[in-house]
Amino acid sequence: MGKLLLVMLVGVAFLVNGCSTVPDTAERKQVVKVEVKEAIQIFKDKDPTIETFFKNSYGYAVLPKVFKGGIWLSGAGGRGEVFEKGKMVGYCKMSQATLGFSFGGEFFREIIFFRTKEDLQKFKTGEFAFSAQATAVAISVGAAAKADYKDGVAVFALTDAGLMVDFSLGGQKFDYIKNSY
Fold first, then answer.
1. Per the CB 3.0–4.6 Å rule, which of 67, 105, 115, 172 could disulfide with 152?
2. What is the pLDDT of residues 103-134, one digit of tens each?
């Protein structure tokens, strides 16, 4: 059990700190692009009312694979693409560290919608961080129809796999790199 814990913590540390914001090869960029497209479709399949956010938001960030895991001290990390008016404009990386009662690991997907150009700009400049546990809406049929922006942002999450007991407080921090086309 002790070795498993050590492996999990090292893995979380790598994911949170070791993953660059921009995929380092054309092949990895293509993989992220496909994963983002797949994540968007999964969200739309789970809750068709989320289409309203895609149509009405100035921009959005899609993180198709975020891993969260740990025991007492936990971390999360993932990367994805950022869109402005429906066009991919860059890459983002999310990192999260929490302290509190946590046990296990899970993969989830996350989409962050920005109501206005100013809200997206705040994300791009690195001034964006929040406590996802307090603001994310778990996606299910009709959930998006009942959701609204809070401080210019609406966040939706969908658990992909894993099991995690988590009663922790913490925040997510994001890095953004403009796409160099």
1. 115
2. 677 778 889 999 999 999 999 987 666 554 44
